[in-house]
Amino acid sequence: MIENPVVILLISYLLGSIPSSYILGKVFFGLDLRTMGSGNLGATNALRSFGKKTATAVLFMDIAKGWFPIQYFSVTGENQIGSLWILAWGLAAILGHIFSCWVKFRGGKGVATSCGVFLAIAPIAGMISLCTWLVAFLMSKKASVGSLVASFVLPIGVYFDPNATDPALLYFSVSLSLLIIWTHRTNLARIMKGTENTSL
């Protein structure tokens, strides 16, 4: 197993940067998702542009991009260099998804990959946030509403997660929530104006 934390940091970014929706769009439809809908390389735009099956595949792939590096390398980090490196690897995967080096540093908004990171680091908090997203999405029919509500709930879930005892994890969840709000800033503006499109 690779043990150099800096190398793992780079691997985490590269895994996160894999543009799953772009790849599936090109392979199965011959289309560039960046030129369709919102131009965002996330599951929501894939849903609007390619349908439920493709969007579901994108969603699971994007979650896996955050889950895998933490799950695979966490033993190395936990035993030798501490939890801060693990959080750094998670952040690298998320930033890789948002700023993918393979598609001119464009990507998704980081929600699914963030979910994968927390399912690996703090599963209870991750599941609470995921279920919150699902309920808010189904009620509003807007993925952006689900994402914003889930980002608000995430630090609360971390705070009450009995397994999330490291204070750094709470600070990380708050910072991540702010990042998700920032990536959804245009969606938030449309929600406030009542012009946000439904996702279903």
Topology:
Layout: H1 5-16, H2 20-29, H3 43-50, H4 52-80, H5 83-98, H6 111-121, H7 123-140, H8 143-160, H9 167-183, H10 185-193
Helix pairs in contact: 1-4, 1-5, 2-4, 3-4, 4-5, 4-6, 5-6, 5-9, 6-7, 7-8, 8-9
Protein architecture, described:
It is built from 10 helices and no strands. Helix 1 (5-16) runs parallel beside helix 5 (83-98), helix 2 (20-29) packs antiparallel against helix 4 (52-80) and helix 7 runs antiparallel to helix 8. It has one domain. The radius of gyration is 16 Å and the shape is globular. 74% of the residues lie in helices and 0% in strands. By secondary structure, the chain is mainly alpha-helical.
Which residue ranges are poorly predicted, with pLDDT under 50 across at least 5 consecutive positions? Answer: none
Summarize the main sheet.
Answer: none
Give the number of domains: 1
Structural class: mainly alpha
N-to-C CA distance: 43 Å
How confident is the prediction overall: mean pLDDT? 92
| Number of H/I helices | 10
Q: What is the molecular shape?
A: globular
Tell me the series of helices and strands, N- to C-terminal.
HHHHHHHHHH
Radius of gyration: 16 Å
